[in-house]
Amino acid sequence: MMALCLKQVFNKDKTFRPRKKFEPGTQRFELYKKAQASLKSGLDLKSVVQLPPGESINDWIAVHVVDFFNRINLIYGTMSEYCTEKSCPIMSGGLKYEYRWQDDSKYKKPTKLSAPQYMCMLMDWIEMLINNEDIFPTRIGVPFPKQFQQVCTKILTRLFRVFVHVYIHHFDSIINMGAEAHVNTCYKHFYYFIREFSLVDHRELEPLVRMPQGWRN
């Protein structure tokens, strides 16, 4: 019954946008398969995120950034009907934390947006970056740019804010859909990964530090 429920909740038709895939036969695809195999093996998540011997750290980070984008995009897509302009006029994490949007095109200064607007801008922005060959090169022999990890830090920092908003404002909806185990596992995987490689400033993590432990167990 639970499996059927989760299948309905995480139906591909409900994704926020098309899933980004790794090209079969590439090194990144093989790394992705290795990471997924480790996840399914039941290994401790702290071990799963560690860099495999002999592998490139940038390739490992690239694989996880794309995978987390897919997973978090799907999580938000499942409960986006509960996150509306009316219910969430400000992109926030409770009363203490507010997130404003800024990019290099339309919003050159930090701008207050509703949560749905912020999420849409965020997913569009990440999708543009991970499809940019100058930032996420997929061709063999093409090096990552010098600022690659900085870009990934910014992506992962903003993706963490999706967890903040979902946990603080919409976790009841996640529970009602029977999807809390999936969301909690994804959060733990994400958390251990960013901590393993120090990819998100600890100050960004504060909104969920004091969250009741039961929410994340």
TrEMBL record:
Coiled coil: none annotated. GO terms for molecular function: kinase activity. SMART domains: Mob1_phocein. InterPro entries: MOB_kinase_act_fam, MOB_kinase_act_sf. Gene3D superfamilies: MOB kinase activator (1.20.140.30). Keywords: Kinase, Metal-binding, Transferase, Zinc. This is MOB3C kinase.
